[in-house]
Design goal:
globular, homotetramer, 9 helices, mainly alpha, 0% strand
Chain lengths: 232, 232, 232, 232
């Protein structure tokens, strides 16, 4: 139980949590390359055989790509959430640790999907796959609830309206992933499809667009003009 | 033997040590995923067989979870300790390096426990497991002693009372882990139980809770009111 | 869709993107060491046999070196580009993620080249190798276009002339790598040669040289003299 | 060829180089754990057999420890050097990249030593081992020469005396490692011994000790007293 505060002036309290999380995301995303293997050829090797062997391994390329995209969007979500946060406490750190546990696990169910998607056991692997996504979404909800409601870890500048919008976006994911999980028993393809479509949803909800160079210079010019008329 | 100081103004001297340590913690915790393997099935595969094969591998999931939780709490402890430190010297860097050696070693004894916990050699692996934790605790004691007593590496704002509380908390771990090590010969389960219970102890001693949004705003409001009455 | 901005004052908005990218580059470049293996010897081992076995593995050393140099120059290019950037948006983050995908893939085609460069299938592997480089170059062009034209993510101090020079340099790469890809069918050696020569081109276009200690002190002395004559 | 400068005010220009290098050092040092393997036992396993199997693997523990200590001291040296540096240019970045290449290579010759130190080929592996250290030392000399002489990358506050001391310390290493390399043909043990002794030499030359809490407070008290007598 600590009551003293020892942050260096102006230091963002969450910077080491971000650095550690960045490290875990970066290692997890890079380890995926181990799923790509150089094929062994007969002696003497022929170009046709090499090309055929490389093409036969399409499930491992697909698994590599899906895992990469999944961890990448998780990292972007993490980045977008932590932009609003500048304090931290123990529960929040533990919840973030649990999220990282799920992140490092991603390659395992993805590998299951890549190996068994075209076999009779596709249903089981898609349940596990959607299940991991459901859990990840629940942990994002938990992290946001801890930061915005249970304790006050957000920056002072964050508006109640933004808190509300984000809470709604995170909450929307859970029923969709649950649906994907349940549909997996009926049609693995539809289940995978919903998981991928939600990827687009996360891109959209975190979407942010900067003005072009021209628009930016116009804005700046008008702000400066206004300031010269109305000095503080 | 260097007598000149060349830190950039306001730079925390330990920031590169923290970055390097974060990297080691992050890689070590992510490499644990290699203990999860996709099971090979007969052809054609059946859902029952896949589920059975996945469930049979529970020791590897347990090992993954324990290792993850262990390295996570070590990282949180490291983070909590370094919050109070803003200087560094060579002995401290070497001791921190020794701590990182123990961190990177964690997967090895955990794997031993996962492989042999249900066999007649459980006693030996639990001695090794508790032994690693005992050594880690001793190195945390050493790091803290170097920072707080041998040299003065703490921030000026750290109170003697906090130094005393922390010294006591770190020192309490050693006899408990020694007990776990000795009990391992008699009952491996009890030994593992003590190690897990100490996990909760570290969470508790580093526990920190932030005020809620409402309490935070009330505090701020009262501070501002007081300041307007009593201008500096 | 976010309209609020919550950057901490003076914080570079791209710092977490750089930290994450640095992590991915660092892990990818370090994983290459797995291509170096200790040879197994007969019992009893002889020095001649060990030396011979080590020399026989020259393709793995070459692959290690080429991959390392390739990822290193990609990192330097990334560093040089991000020096001019201090803002970010979603498209830019996704494009950067795609670049990191290519970075983590580097070991795979390099391993292909190392394994099959001296065999009849050299043509195929060199097409794949040059193809990866072509794609990487296209993504660098995309990143730069997003930062400089599509949105305004560059620092205010970057001159239009520098933007123009950089755009030209990035655009020059694409036709050269395409040429290398096409020539691979005719002569794998020439294809690899062009890829290596372009490595030198990237070093040259990002080349920057600092003044020596003497020149630096002279500059400083003259600036100070001028300032004392012409006080602001 | 860039002539514009775009560093954010007060930003240390080498911070991304340090972050990338820290990442490579951290990954390289953590990957060493792969040399520790859980032994497979007969069924049913006995405690005596497990202990015997674990003890038999002492060369892998030794290799793990030597590699860890080696990469750790290389990182400390890197840290100590970069404390004096706040600028960078292309040649310096390439030389640093070459150093990182050597760092990632460390596990390979260490593994060679661990595997063959007790066999007739010990001479060859010790030549390779000392050879890597010699090259690493030469690259440290090159880095320092680039930073201190070829271009002026050091902080303005670094004294010519410190530059001279450091240049001498780095230069001293080369003949010692060359001696270790040559003696390896005659006695592998002496060669390893010299390499280890130089480890202590690097600890000593980068050694830095902070005052104790009491000495620190006394210094501070006297400085404050002096300042109150002699106001600026």
């Amino acid at each position: 139980m600590i009551e003293e505060r020892h942050e260096t002036r102006g230091e963002k309290e969450t910077s080491r949590i971000e650095a550690f999380s960045d490290g875990v995301f970066a290692v997890a995303i890079t380890l995926l390359v181990f799923s790509l293997q150089v094929p062994a050829l007969d002696n003497p090797p022929t170009s046709e055989h090499l090309v055929k062997m490389l093409l036969l391994r399409w499930p491992s390329y697909l698994a590599f790509f899906i895992s990469f995209a999944t961890i990448l969007i998780m990292w972007i979500s993490h980045h977008v959430m932590f932009k609003l946060i500048d304090k931290s406490d123990t529960l929040f750190m533990l919840a973030n640790g649990f999220l990282l546990l799920l992140v490092t696990t991603v390659p395992f169910p993805t590998q299951l999907v890549a190996t068994y998607l075209t076999t009779p056991v596709a249903g089981v692997v898609c349940v596990i796959y959607a299940g991991l996504f459901l859990m990840t979404n629940l942990v994002y909800n938990l992290l946001w609830w801890l930061a915005a409601h249970q304790s006050h870890l957000l920056k002072d500048s964050v508006s109640p309206k933004l808190i509300h919008t984000r809470s709604r976006d995170y909450a929307l994911g859970a029923p969709c992933y649950l649906l994907a999980l349940l549909l997996a028993f009926w049609s693995p393809g539809v289940s995978i499809g919903i998981c991928s479509a939600l990827w687009l949803f996360w891109v959209f909800t975190t979407y942010e667009r900067r003005p072009t160079r021209k628009a930016y210079q116009k804005q700046r010019f008008e702000r400066e003009k206004k300031e010269s008329h109305d000095p503080a």
